[in-house]
Design brief:
mainly alpha, homodimer, Arc Repressor Mutant, subunit A, elongated, DNA-binding, 12% strand
Chain lengths: 104, 104
DNA sequence: TATTTGCGCAACCTTTAGGTTGCATATATA
DNA sequence: TATATATGCAACCTAAAGGTTGCGCAAATA
């Protein structure tokens, strides 16, 4: 079941996991040490991130290192693109307002 | 209660609302016409978006026009920034790999 | 003034999310 | 080989999410 990446990043623990693995690939146990919950709870979050391809497992003996998948993360950037024009417009309008106020 | 923007954008209906109001400010009724659910359900989504400041109400008689707040959406952009370096690195590595393969 | 219309709030219901514990399996190690 | 360790899966529980209907209120309109 391919999960929604927006749902995936909605959870703060999952965002923290992404931040961690973006720096360095980690095993589930290594991740679990960083959080105040059981390893199984962390594993559930890993599963969600894995199912939507934000992280990728690399097996090494009995260890599994999960790697950050930048390509997938970039989809957020693409989604945001539709709003960039809006915020540039809004900020220009704010600039103009401030300039006008300053001139008075 | 200030809501989390990550939670706010996790719902597909709310993302659709954001796309709509980024183009043009709309009233709850106007939004509700676009979706296959009751006005009240849409209103709940509006409430979530409003509580986390992604949209701003402007009263006009008994109508309320909700405007997109680009500034708030930009926070999502800032969060993404921490991963930009990762994906540039990964893409460069991919480029190098492809170049190496081509040379062989 | 009486009525319609736009909106928000509250109560309720069902599904999903996120945590727990327990167990099975595969690999590493004594 | 026996044991310890890393991981994933399943069952279970509670809280929250997302939908519904019904209601109240304020503004527009007949």
């Amino acid at each position: 079941m391919k999960q929604d990446i927006f749902h995936a990043i909605a959870d703060p623990t999952r965002r923290a996991i992404l931040t961690l693995v973006a720096i360095q690939a980690l095993t589930p146990n290594a991740m679990a040490e960083k959080f105040d919950m059981t390893r199984q709870a962390v594993s559930k979050h890993i599963k969600v991130l894995h199912e939507c391809d934000l992280i990728k497992p690399v097996q090494s003996g009995r260890d599994i290192y999960y790697h950050f998948n930048a390509k997938r993360m970039q989809e957020f950037d693409h989604w945001l693109a539709q709003f960039r024009q809006s915020w540039e417009t809004q900020f220009n309008q704010l600039d103009q307002l401030l300039t006008t106020l300053k001139e008075q």
